Amino acid sequence: MTQDQSNAMWGGRFAAGPDAIMEAINASISFDKRLAAQDIAGSRAHAAMLAATGIISDTDADAIREGLLTVLSEIEGGAFAFSTALEDIHMNVEARLKEVIGEPAGRLHTARSRNDQVATDFRLWVRDQIDAAVTGLRALIGALLVQAEAGADWVMPGFTHLQTAQPVTWGHHMMAYVEMFARDMGRFSDARARMNESPLGAAALAGTSFPIDRWMTAEALGFDRPMANSLDAVSDRDFALEFLGAASICAMHLSRFAEELVIWSSAQFRFVTLSDRFSTGSSIMPQKKNPDAAELIRAKIGRIFGANVALMTVMKGLPLAYSKDMQEDKEQVFDAADNLMLALAAMEGMVRDMSANRPALEAAAASGFSTATDLADWLVRELGLPFREAHHVTGRLVAMAEAKGCDLPDLSLADMQSVHADIRADVFDVLGVHNSVASRVSYGGTAPEQVRAQVARWKERLG
Ligand code: ARG
């Protein structure tokens, strides 16, 4: 091979170009072209700083900054010819800049390396995704609040072990997810606050001898400050891992909710009807309406959690500072982010459109001896029984109802008194599901008034 075939950006010491397989394993342009806008923003900030500090002339900086806008519009317009030989987005952009503006393009890479460049680009990209996740979560919470407010006093069974436990309200169940998704928002915001420092100016790993102003580029790119250690700046990807960690937990929450929607929309439960817009049919069974969106959300956790594990594994053995292994960070994060945003949007749509089947919810709430705890509490409160004894008496009444094939409120007073002679007729007041939920007024409890207070609190907080 001739010298001409070696890489134009770094081929000075090379006599031959790379093997085709080397090029294939080395190139990242097929995916890191997604960083084009961030790369160009970083380069424009860098060029302005180089001129402000007198490292390059204003004329060259102006040409570079203008030329970069041309390159960006070519990329955004789909007219850009990406080259695998130029490896990645950084060298593709710079090579095109040289074609557009000529010699000044060669001055852009002064006091910079692809190591701090890629770390900067990727931080900017992840930061945008964090903002998008927060926006998506906010919309989903908005949809849940509408459901919760409408159904603050609709009763449904509350489960433990997926066995009927105690009646709760629809609004209370919706608000449980509001709390979870709000914590997810908090996790993304916390990660954003920690990651919002600029790696730019760390150069390859050791900093630079040029009199750069890292505060200037940090500010231009919306970072709070430059990162304090150049080795750290180019070699950690913890910011991406925090994003994936927050995304994994959020996806886990989405998946649990999706699982409930799959169960609730089944013919056996009929708790909710999902809209046609978020369901699909079967090509063979005409009666089917499948909750595919919920199922796919449930499945997304796999790839998002997978990305988290994959990047952890990539990073765990790397000596400081940059290693090419780190090029493997991007596809995982891109895929996880795309699928998280899709899952959030699909869940929001499903929640907005779904309608609760109140009669089915209420019937289910009343079955399965769901007010047995209310009965035991009544025995404690009204007859002064120790809770353990009340529990035992109630258990015998449940067994009696089960044997008769009825529910607790269907037992007669005589039936009740055969188990405990002091039981009075007013016990029946606490056996109704509406009275049961209305009585749970402890802070954070399922009583409609508590649910309405939760809704009001979140509405105020989210503005
Ligand atoms: N494409 C590379 C990456 O994503 C850019 C950094 C390359 N740096 C280097 N020293 N080869 O990690």
From TrEMBL:
<protein>
    <recommendedName>
        <fullName>Argininosuccinate lyase</fullName>
        <ecNumber>4.3.2.1</ecNumber>
    </recommendedName>
</protein>
<dbReference type="InterPro" id="IPR008948">
    <property type="entry name" value="L-Aspartase-like"/>
</dbReference>
<dbReference type="InterPro" id="IPR020557">
    <property type="entry name" value="Fumarate_lyase_CS"/>
</dbReference>
<comment type="similarity">
    <text>Belongs to the lyase 1 family. Argininosuccinate lyase subfamily.</text>
</comment>
<dbReference type="InterPro" id="IPR009049">
    <property type="entry name" value="Argininosuccinate_lyase"/>
</dbReference>
<keyword id="KW-0456">Lyase</keyword>
<dbReference type="GO" id="GO:0004056">
    <property type="term" value="F:argininosuccinate lyase activity"/>
</dbReference>
<dbReference type="GO" id="GO:0042450">
    <property type="term" value="P:L-arginine biosynthetic process via ornithine"/>
</dbReference>
<dbReference type="InterPro" id="IPR022761">
    <property type="entry name" value="Fumarate_lyase_N"/>
</dbReference>
<feature type="domain" description="Argininosuccinate lyase C-terminal">
    <location>
        <begin position="369"/>
        <end position="438"/>
    </location>
</feature>
<dbReference type="InterPro" id="IPR024083">
    <property type="entry name" value="Fumarase/histidase_N"/>
</dbReference>
<dbReference type="GO" id="GO:0005829">
    <property type="term" value="C:cytosol"/>
</dbReference>
<dbReference type="Pfam" id="PF14698">
    <property type="entry name" value="ASL_C2"/>
</dbReference>
<dbReference type="InterPro" id="IPR029419">
    <property type="entry name" value="Arg_succ_lyase_C"/>
</dbReference>
<dbReference type="InterPro" id="IPR000362">
    <property type="entry name" value="Fumarate_lyase_fam"/>
</dbReference>
<feature type="domain" description="Fumarate lyase N-terminal">
    <location>
        <begin position="12"/>
        <end position="306"/>
    </location>
</feature>
<dbReference type="Pfam" id="PF00206">
    <property type="entry name" value="Lyase_1"/>
</dbReference>
<keyword id="KW-0963">Cytoplasm</keyword>
<comment type="pathway">
    <text>Amino-acid biosynthesis; L-arginine biosynthesis; L-arginine from L-ornithine and carbamoyl phosphate: step 3/3.</text>
</comment>
<keyword id="KW-0028">Amino-acid biosynthesis</keyword>
<keyword id="KW-0055">Arginine biosynthesis</keyword>
